[in-house]
């Protein structure tokens, strides 16, 4: 559960093992006494694409940072800071294809907070509102699929930025991937493509988070990719239908020294923190901090 605004909260709900949903609740307009979710009037339920009958949803999690009301100390000489309207929400669904719990996959849906706010205004006269996937998902989200369980408890999202190693903890590919979902920045970079930037504006069928931004697919000089075309995911062990998502993003690639192995990554407004393992008289963990 996390704050969407000063009046709304957003959280994931698992109704059955194959029916996850997102729920946005206006906690200001509701009564002060506790209520069952099914009795809450000022609520908006967002449904995902239908999952395969043999798939088992293990958990649903929603993350975003900082809080909607956050602002730097007014006494600090900060020229600018992350807009409260440009925060990305990471909805993580852990699913076991065919019900095999030892081989889970991680689905991550990315959506901007202001997008959810606009939908609450659109459906305000229909509360409690129930919004099916075609009415919100394809246009307002981007889905990445990881063939393993990702870390849930690290600070991998801040503002409109998301960071990952695209590999199992301790067994990464010596690269860190920074995804930027600020749509103003995406449009600006698309108009000002340089030699170290490539554009991936062709429709793609993605089987994992590495496509179309896999390090091996980028030339050494191309360490930034812009993705604005729809991505399509078709895996009948997970979904009953092909899933299309369209939210644009930029992905920047950082290379980590070969003798290091990333174990965890975190991000803040102006930096990336990478916890790595370095072989120096035995294995040890140490942080590597890089400003952005």
UniProtKB/TrEMBL annotation:
Residues 196-215 are annotated as: Disordered. It comes from Amanita muscaria (strain Koide BX008). Residues 196-207 have a biased composition (Low complexity). This is Uncharacterized protein.
